[in-house]
Q: What sequence folds into this?
């Protein structure tokens, strides 16, 4: 409040409030990172939306990015997303084959100079 009128919080005020609450919460959950800042929430939400099925272009629009490349810095694919894509593009015949090195580990290690 300033002169009895409500005012917007400054960036520093928001950062201070986040720091205070994250420090208090860390007592109960030590996995909460130090140095929590407002931008972490933006990045986390973008990654969550992308990993749960929202197209990267839609995430970019939601965040107000003019360049899709900016959004790529935020939203990283999950291991499950990568696994699903790889399974879709891998021919079925390749999935049934045993790796060439399996059962020949000693021979391959010797040829590579590891033994």
A:
């Amino acid at each position: 409040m300033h002169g009895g009128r409500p005012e917007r919080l400054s960036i520093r005020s928001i950062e201070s409030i986040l720091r205070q609450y994250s420090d208090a919460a860390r007592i109960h959950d030590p996995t909460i990172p130090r140095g929590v800042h407002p931008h972490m929430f933006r990045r986390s939400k973008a990654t969550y939306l992308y990993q749960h099925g929202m197209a990267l272009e839609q995430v970019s629009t939601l965040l107000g990015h003019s360049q899709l490349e900016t959004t790529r810095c935020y939203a990283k694919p999950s291991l499950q997303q990568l696994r699903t894509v790889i399974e879709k593009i891998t021919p079925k015949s390749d999935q049934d084959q045993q790796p060439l090195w399996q059962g020949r580990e000693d021979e391959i290690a010797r040829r590579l100079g590891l033994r």
Notes: DSSP finds seven helices and no strands in the chain.
